[in-house]
């Protein structure tokens, strides 16, 4: 671990000396995200999504997804509003539900599925604020499958990557190369902190957040 990475590790441990199992860390950073994940599994697991789509319950999928996310602070209020507006219509809810199911549970390579999900998000109806942002694009994968997917807050992540000495290949428009770069960053973080026992991408994102957020 180089000097910059070690400095980031020391910062994390200054706030959470118990590592990823620290009670305060779980309370501040992990707990509510894991609660959202458990709620997702209970209401929108792969079987539930498949059944609802077969029954024409696209609006119900969209409503459940938005409701689960709304109990977190992951999206800004304007992003939450844009998302709610985007899935109000039958067409918006159908595109969202089928696109999300394909992204999470479809076949094909990760890069193609992510790019197709970005296309779906971009196509959703909008009133004022655009829906195609990095947080909106990544939040549902993160909640549904934190073993595979990570959440991207652009400004915080760019600050964290610079502090860590990682060459984050960021582009403002959501696309696979930037997401792949973030996944590589998360893998490096977890490998470097493996003695602190990171469990999944929630912990990778939590570590990154501590490095880049004004809260810390």
Characterization of this structure:
It is built from eleven helices and no strands. It is 69% helix and 0% strand. The chain has a domain at 36-131. It is mainly α and 216 residues long.
List keywords for this structure.
single chain; 216 residues; mainly alpha; 11 helices
> Judging from the principal axes of the Cα atoms, what is the shape?
globular
**What is the count of β-strands?**
0
How many DSSP H or I helices?
A: 11
| Cα separation of the termini | 22 Å
Range of helix content: 55-70%
Order of helices and strands: HHHHHHHHHHH
Over the alpha carbons, how many angstroms does the gyration radius reach? 17 Å
| Amount of beta strand | under 5%
Q: Regions with pLDDT < 50 over 5+ consecutive residues?
A: none
Report the structural category: mainly alpha
Please summarize the sheet with the most strands.
none
Overall average pLDDT: 96
């Amino acid at each position: 671990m180089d000097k910059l990475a070690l400095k980031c590790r020391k910062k994390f441990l200054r706030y959470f000396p118990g590592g990823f199992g620290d009670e305060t860390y779980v309370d501040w950073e992990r707990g509510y995200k894991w609660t959202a994940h458990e709620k997702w599994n209970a209401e929108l697991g792969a079987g539930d999504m498949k059944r609802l789509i077969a029954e024409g319950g696209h609006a119900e999928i969209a409503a459940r997804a938005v409701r689960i996310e709304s109990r977190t602070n992951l999206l800004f209020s304007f992003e939450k509003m844009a998302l709610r507006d985007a899935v109000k219509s039958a067409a918006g809810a159908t595109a969202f539900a089928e696109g999300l199911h394909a992204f999470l549970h479809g076949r094909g390579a990760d890069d193609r599925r992510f790019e197709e999900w970005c296309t779906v998000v971009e196509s959703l109806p909008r009133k004022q604020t655009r829906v195609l942002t990095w947080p909106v694009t990544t939040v549902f994968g993160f909640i549904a499958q934190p073993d595979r997917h990570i959440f991207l807050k652009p400004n915080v992540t760019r600050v964290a990557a610079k502090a860590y000495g990682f060459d984050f290949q960021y582009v403002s428009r959501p696309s696979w190369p930037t997401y792949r770069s973030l996944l590589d960053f998360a893998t490096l973080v977890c490998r470097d902190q493996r003695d602190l026992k990171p469990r999944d991408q929630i912990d990778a994102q939590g570590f990154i957040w501590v490095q880049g957020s004004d809260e810390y």
